[in-house]
Design a protein that fits this description.
This protein is 25% helix and 12% strand. By secondary structure, the protein is an alpha/beta fold. Strands 1, 2, 3, 4 and 5 form a 5-stranded mixed β-sheet that branches. Helix 2 (59-67) packs parallel to helix 4.
Amino acid sequence: MTRLALAFPNAPGAAQGPRRPATLQLLWALGALAFATTTLAFDLQGHRGARGLAPENTLAAFRTAQAIGVTTLETDLAVTSDGVLVISHDPHLNPDLVRAPDGAYVQVPGVAIHSLTRKALRQYDIGRLNPASSYAKGFPEQKAADGERFPTLVDVFALGAPTRVRFNLETKITPTSVVNTMFTNAAMNRSVSERTFCSLPSVSPLR
């Protein structure tokens, strides 16, 4: 699968800002195309690891994604109350995914991850979809991996560091200077900063 995405600021349906001359738009598109075809022409991303095959955002999912040949691991970040960057698409414990220490799936509304310490978060199992949920029906080929915990960002970097895999990270946290420093340090400490890019949504679950 070869994928190339070009965004034209003045295309129909796009947010309208100051119009750029057609020549500049063409030059921009050609530059983007040249860059993509030389360095990123083939980028197979494993969404939340490989959630169609293994429990999403777990080390099992990231190992599976690498085993099938993905070139980028796409995932999401949250932060615990004691300042540890962890992997989670949801800012709260999701009843479709998360089991409490007693083995029962958590109830709605789930506890906010930023209210838990890393040690407390490790008590929850995310290795098997809730079979009673409609969400689980969308992943009939997903193989359970009981005992999987919320990995830290450092865990994921450590898994991918010996390879050439890239990291596409979306934060679920306010992009403050403290968080930016945590993220940068984690990437640099594992020597993967040049293979890591991050997107920052406008919402903030820490408020």
